[in-house]
Design brief:
This protein is mainly alpha-helical. It is built from 16 helices and four strands. The protein has one domain.
Amino acid sequence: MTIFARLKKCILINLHKFLIVHLQNQLMKQKIKFTNKDKTQFFSTLKERVDNYFIENNISQHADITMVFKTIFMLSLYFVPYILIMTQGYSVMGMWVCSGVMGLGLAGIGMSVMHDANHSAYSASERINKFLSFSLTIVGGDNKNWKTQHNVLHHTYTNIYEHDRDIDNKVIMRFSPAGEYKKIQKFQIVYVFLFYSIMSLYWTTAKDFIQYFEFIKEGHNRESKTDRIKTLANIIVWKLVYWGYIIVLPTLLLDLSIWQVLLGFLTLHVVAGLILSIVFQLAHVVEDTTFPVPDKTGNIENEWAIHQLNTTADFAKDNWLITFYVGGLNYQAIHHLFPRVCHVHYPKIAPIVEQTAKEFDVPYLYNESFVSAFLSHLRVISKLGRNETTFTAIANSMG
């Protein structure tokens, strides 16, 4: 092959890649629209019934005394072990145990405190919501990025590939039948939990910086240049504060090496990452949930509320301990329909949703226990890894 033929081939290959990337970017920018083609009154009826529940019982849809106790408990689960590490002179093993408990606290804060606050569900006062959402900042996250990814992209475009980032392909993991298939993914049932375990570690180190630039590029961040600089500076400052108290101070003040401290830090995030990842996956990447694909004009031919029930499943609704710890995220379908209602009310709202869904012949998906939901997730992950397209979750999404 002559040098000109090689050059021509190289240009054609790179042009092909450019066109593919350009097309993918255009698809990502495609505006998704939900069309209530059947003119169903499902959500208006459901909303009226849920509103009446609060009116008739003369209660607020926001936090109650139970929620206040839970907030104190979750924050204590994170900060009390940290204080013990810094004051009691524990051995390496004692420090690691406390770090593991901090991981439980970190996950608990994420699911039970900052989540409600960032949805404006904790209080009718936005000042209180903003104050409590700061709990995410002090454990290493960024509120603006989280709200964009979760409140806007995930809640609006649930399980829609390349719009809901939570089910997009990640490294060598595949969570949607619409995602690109790679042969290595046939082993993802083996390695997926390794990646789950570093989820919060990635979040507190690199993810917020990556998303900051991605959201600007994709048009999700519409701040002025000055405000963008302030936002980036805010991320940097609070990351330094977090790394300072979680890594630098223990290294300087305790009789521990940097490697021992880093292993404690890793222990904290392995525990938190596994819990947060698994709880989320049991709601969306399980059997019977769907992964809808928009048509060429970006239409999803379904009412938004029905779309939420098609793509989200509840689990272990009768387990009070799970409900307490995961912040009602085992009632994920209820949360997606009423994100501005505090999660302590979900167990009472769930029967209303289930009954109304039955009346309108709308699916209300749930697994009876944590174990059944976990096994269902494993089966979906395994089948996605084998590129099977015959099981219910995929068949429904493509139908």
